[in-house]
Amino acid sequence: MEWLSYLTDFKAMGIEWATFAMFGMLLILLLTGMPLAFVTLLVALIFALGWFGANAVPLITSRIFSFVNSFVFVSVPMFVLMAAILDRSGIARDLFDAMRLVGGRLRGGVAIQTLLVAVVLAAMSGIIGGEVVLLGLIALPQMLRLGYDRKLAIGVCCAGGALGTMIPPSIVLIIYGLTANVSIGDLFTASFLPGLILAGLYCAYILFRAYLNPSLAPVPEAGSIPRAEKLRLLKGLILPVLVVTFVLGSIYGGIASVTEASAVGVFGVTLSTMVRREFSLALLTGAARQTLATVGMIVWIGIGATALVGVFNLMGGIRFVSALITGISDNPTVIILFMMLMLFVLGMFLDWVGIALLTMPIFVPIVVDLGFDPVWFGVVFAMNMQVSFLSPPFGPAAFYLKSVAPKDISLGEIFQALLPFIGLQIFALALLIMFPGITGR
Amino acid sequence: MDQLNEDGDAPSNTSGADPCAGILGRVVNAVGIVFALGILISAGILVLEVFLRYALNRPTIWAHETVIFLNAIAFLFGGLFVASRNAHIRVVLIYDWIATPTRRIFDIWISLACCAATTFFAWAAWQGVKRAVWTPAGDFRLETSGSAWNPPTPGMLKLFLLFILIIMAIQFLIFALSYISRKEH
Amino acid sequence: AQDFALRFQSSDPAGNPNFVLQSEWAASVENLTGGRVTIEMLPVNSIVQHTETQDAVAAGIIDGHITDTSYFSGKDAAFSLIANPVGAWSSPYEMLAFMRDGGGNELMENLVEPYGLHFIGATTPGLEAFVSNKPLNGVDDLKGLKMRAPEGLVQQVFAAAGAVPVNLPGSEVFTSLDKGVIDAADYTVFSTNQAQGLHDVARYPVYPGFHSMPLVEVSMNKDTWEKMPADIQAILELSVRDFANNMIAQLAAKDLKAVAEANANPDITVSNWSAAERNRFRTIATGQWASVASRSENAQKVYDTLTTYLRDQGMTSE
Ligand code: NA
Ligand code: NA
């Protein structure tokens, strides 16, 4: 009969069982088909009520207010807007047609080029969301049109689009730097090579799959393309390359901050539609409406996660997790591996903001005490967040892609497609732990 | 120009409001354009700010805070907008597999749960609004940002959040009622 | 027995030296009260955002906060003026003297009380250092300087001194300095700036700073405070006083060590303004106080108390 008292006072459960119950409730509600954003919000509400009573509920609305009232997230609608305009104009199609020229003969060439675009986008942005949507709107349909294997194409868009927080600038590393009180410049320098290695692993995987089974990535044309046609196709590259130069130039030339640069990209893309005589008011308003719908989905998923973390922290989550780690072993390597395991499990249920708020304050002092380099650990942390973006059931990159992918692509299929890429991320993570020298530290 | 067609090419918003969203859903969908334009305008403001600062060495004190506000209300309204289209992301692993009559029961309960949660949140938002809109002495003052420009955007945003949560609760209730009244869906 | 299990949220992240000192204070309270009071220090944003802690303490969601008072400037301009009267203090001890003996504590108590909080005491991390990627030796060098300043009064003062204030969130300061989007920034104390690598991208810091010294308040829920027995209340007050002295001394030592480190680095040039230049800046700053004072009755009260105190102490010529 003891469990009956749990229904009226959650505190009777203790934090261990409450944590367990929280994950269980999340999973069950998710499976009912309830919208994800409201699953996390509802669980946060139930635990706020059950553990503290109605007076604690304003903490959730306070977190909603703070979450939307921030400059950091402004780059997300900007990237989505850019994608929506590109999608509505002929620019995206022409870009991918032109890409066939450059890497056309290479098996898997278009997927590789998509990754290249993803790396360039990652250098333009410090947050994920916008890039996955951009690739999902533009690269995914083109790869599907060219007959690429669906899963391969999906994986490239999600994994590539998530690189934004691994390749500098990166908001994950900035938040880590502020928490751990280490140099953000050092973190950026240290994460650059691991970020490229991760992208390189994706590339190698695509080539490997494509050569093993050529039907996964058809080579577009067998015969040679006439010169006039080549020139016409190459013209398709000019405007996108100009826009990218615009944006990267404004960041690295000290003209605009990272978030402002994303608006410069919107401006550049809009100008491009004018140059191509495709511009119309209807195109712009249509793109803006689509942006509203897409960021509505993305932001409310984040809202749910941030609410849940606030409630869990108030329940004493920080102390609980801290005690869990320090009790595990005397062997530093085991502790680091246990942290990785925890990050992996948390990544299944929370977004990175939540994980960072929850674990960084606990992990960093322990890591420093054990004699590890906190900059190295920052890169390890960022790599873990890469995994969390893709891992089911709460995989933000998968949700972002789902919000713009063709209707017949299900969330289940996306997650299946992501499994090999998660494997590659874990492999890269293992490399980082075994060879810390990769970070140059 | 057909409004629906403009959005038509993007798979995610092939439609406007969900048929079960009622008149409210259609109104929310129509009003969406205002907030969508806000996002467009904020992009323009950012570009203007970059130009003023870099070319003329005269940055504004209002650009960033205006952009944050325009995007914040778009984020909040976006949640309602997507709700009225019934297009929030969901995991349909089991949901797709169950028989239609049972699914209707699921739909009813999901909508009611969402309605209850948002009603609760609306009440909670009201607790914050009281402190953002009135001084302890009871005088009206919208909470400002405290910057050199000092706009009342935090107060306005807290009010807007309350408003969105109320409309959202009503929207979910309308969904629940439509599912209850429709035997087939 | 444990009578009060409290949760306090800080406005600093977990690895920040300020947070470490705050956690030590929390532990000391448990010792001093023989375990009757326990305080769990929570890092910034773990429960609510730093600008929302006042509401959360009042609602009893958290029990208290240790935070820069200027985050509540949007509730009442008085918070802005008392939190950071730019140019008023040349050392943390001058500020503490004003708080303890010049009417500062009473002002704070009366300001936060209607909001449902009880003010226990004040501390400060000390004078903030200035970060710049151009050499700055006086007020004239501020002309046209693109600088990030977050809070109202600081921003106003720099504008009045001829600089061009840019609004940027803290998370974009590093990249913007690095790429040259901005020339300089109001950030935090020298040692933390140095640890976070700001001096690697902005090689001309000014130390000691001349522009800003935030008031950090330790406050808690009023009802909970009133439920406490007098001895616990007294312990809390004294422990905060000790915490303030401790914080100032430790952070100053850290700063000096970091300055020595920076001086040894040929790439970094630390500059120190002359007394004359500091006075010029102070004169510009105090001229801006009045405009904040006019924003609310409470702000005017702060202004009057502060200017009277400074005059009585012979710190201003007016
Ligand atoms: Na990036
Ligand atoms: Na995940």
Q: What can you see in these coordinates?
A:
- The complex is a heterotrimer of chains A (441), B (185) and C (318).
- With 441 residues, chain A is an all-alpha fold.
- Helices cover 76% and strands 0% of the residues of chain A.
- Chain A has 20 helices and no strands.
- Chain A has helices spanning 2-8, 14-31, 36-51, 58-68, 75-88, 91-103, 109-124, 130-145, 150-161, 171-180, 184-212, 227-252, 258-275, 281-314, 317-326, 332-349, 352-369, 374-390, 396-402, 411-434.
- Chain A is globular, with a radius of gyration of 23 Å.
- Chain A starts with a helix and ends in a 7-residue tail after the last helix.
- The mean pLDDT of chain A is 88.
- Chain B is globular.
- The model of chain B is unreliable at 1-14 (pLDDT under 50).
- In chain B, helix 2 (22-54) runs antiparallel to helix 3, helix 3 (63-84) packs parallel to helix 5 (153-181) and helix 4 runs antiparallel to helix 5 (153-181).
- Chain B has 185 residues and is an all-alpha fold.
- The longest helix of chain B is centred in the middle third of the chain and has 34 residues, at 100-133.
- With 318 residues, chain C is an alpha/beta fold.
- Chain C has helices at residues 17-32, 53-58, 77-83, 92-101, 104-112, 152-160, 173-179, 190-195, 198-201, 222-227, 230-264, 275-293, 297-312; strands at 4-10, 37-42, 64-68, 117-123, 130-132, 146-148, 164-166, 184-186, 216-221.
- Chain C starts with a strand and ends in a 6-residue tail after the last helix.
- Chains in contact: A-B, A-C, B-C.
- The interface between A and B is large, with 71 and 70 residues.
- The site of one sodium ion has 9 residues of chain A, from helix 7.
